[in-house]
Design a protein that fits this description.
With 56 residues, this protein is of the alpha+beta class. It has one helix and three strands. It has one domain. A three-stranded antiparallel β-sheet has the order 1-2-3, with no helix packed on it. The two termini are 18 Å apart.
């Protein structure tokens, strides 16, 4: 998933992601920290892709 962390709690975070068409998902999802396998911040792919995002 690629997107934005909206809120971080003790054991989970609220995350809003965008799809391959550059559209944000309407509702945030809950992701437990134990399910996260990798986290990239300010990577080139996301920075470039995010310039073309569209809101639903």
């Amino acid at each position: 998933m690629i997107g934005r962390i909206l809120q971080a709690k003790k054991k989970k975070l609220y995350f809003r992601y965008f799809n391959a068409q550059g559209r944000w998902d309407q509702e945030p999802i809950v992701v437990k920290y134990r399910k996260i396998t990798q986290l990239n911040v300010n990577d080139r792919y996301t920075d470039i892709f995010s310039k073309y995002l569209r809101y639903r």
